[in-house]
TrEMBL record:
Residues 197-207 have a biased composition (Basic and acidic residues). Belongs to the PTH family. This is Peptidyl-tRNA hydrolase. Residues 184-196 have a biased composition (Polar residues). The record marks D92 as: Stabilizes the basic form of H active site to accept a proton. It catalyses: an N-acyl-L-alpha-aminoacyl-tRNA + H2O = an N-acyl-L-amino acid + a tRNA + H(+). Monomer. Residues 184-207 are annotated as: Disordered.
Length: 207
């Protein structure tokens, strides 16, 4: 059975729950809820597992704190013998407007400390889903912004993005990175009906 590692970056603990820097955690939580997945506290992170069309999916929320995320990613790749082509990392991105999604097959860390540590340990050859959190902050207040919590209005704007991100995870596993990039890049927000139709198309294409 093919294995896939889906990583949502963030910081552990109640103090960081709901913050912009924990957007990766939020997306994995939404995917897990929709798929009835229960996370377990294991080495270097919370782990959830499921299967989809004969493929095994391992969800990872690192508990290493953001700046040491690479330790968790490398450990679980090695432990489960997962090829880096089957790795998807979900990360918040200041450079993108709130709710915009950008899926890339490879690339630099873009100044993100979590991606930076992953790059130190395994290189750049892995897929990453960047999730826009906006950058409406004064000069010198970047840390306050990324560690600040989403307000109610922002969460309403973010919800379609979270739903689309969950579909991207499924498509990445079933159809691969190139098909998924072609299908989803440039479409940050989609209606529930469109998501359903696209999910059906991905399933058909993968059969």
């Amino acid at each position: 059975m093919e294995k896939y590692l889906i990583v949502g970056l963030g910081n552990p603990g109640d103090d960081y729950s709901g913050t912009r820097h924990n957007t990766g955690f939020m997306i994995l939580d939404a995917f897990a809820k929709a798929s009835n997945i229960i996370f377990e506290d294991k080495r270097y992170g919370f782990i959830g597992e499921t299967s989809l069309k004969g493929r095994r999916i391992i969800l990872l929320k690192p508990t290493t704190f953001m700046n040491l995320s690479g330790n968790a990613v490398r450990y679980w790749l090695d432990k489960e013998h997962i090829d880096q082509s089957h790795l998807l990392v979900i990360v918040d991105d200041l450079a993108l407007p709130l709710g915009m999604l950008r899926l890339k097959a490879t690339g630099s860390n873009g100044g993100h400390n979590g991606l930076g540590h992953i790059q130190q340990l395994i290189g750049q050859q892995y897929a990453r889903l960047r999730v826009g959190i906006g950058n409406d902050f004064a000069r010198g207040r970047q840390i306050d912004w990324v560690l600040g919590k989403y307000d109610e209005e922002d969460m309403k704007k973010l919800q379609p993005c979270i739903e689309t991100a969950c579909e991207i995870i499924r498509s990445f596993v079933l159809a691969g990175i190139n098909t998924t990039m072609n299908q989803f890049n440039g479409h940050p927000q989609k209606t529930s009906s469109n998501l359903s139709k696209e999910g059906e198309n991905v399933l058909k294409d993968s059969q």
